[in-house]
Amino acid sequence: xxxxxxxxxxxxxxxxxxxxxxxxxxxxxxxxxxxxxxxxxxxxxxxxxxxxxxxxxxxxxxxxxxxxxxxxxxxxxxxxxxxxxxxxxxxxxxxxxxxxxxxxxxxxxxxxxxxxxxxxxxxxxxxxxxxxxxxxxxxxxxxxxxxxxxxxxxx
Length: 155
Prior knowledge:
- Helix 3 (40-64) runs antiparallel to helix 4 and helix 4 (92-108) runs antiparallel to helix 5 (113-150).
- The chain is mainly alpha-helical.
- The longest helix is centred in the C-terminal third of the chain and has 38 residues, at 113-150.
- The protein has helices at residues 2-13, 17-25, 40-64, 92-108, 113-150.
- It starts with a helix and ends in a 5-residue tail after the last helix.
């Protein structure tokens, strides 16, 4: 393949022959904490793009509803957004963030990145989302409670 030749030439011209050999010839002399499996980079890219699409969809829905997208100021919410991606998940931007982080773990092959993903999910689920839910419950009352009963927090 021409693309593979270009990657090989790029790596070799920059003294990265070992990187090329590991990537394309399957040598497994990777540093501790790294993984390398077939399709890992393309899987990471696909997850990253899926996360980005979910995030853009959520931002579009929030913009259409003329409400804030800033997670630090949920009290500025003007309207309860229940259309678009918000029909499937109450927190599509946090879901997108998690998917993007998982994609980056795959892309870079860093197992320690799983700890970052776990910490993000833990903090978001235990601190950020409950704070937002209290504020939105105060702002939108029963309609928000009904929404919470019908739409999952994540998926």
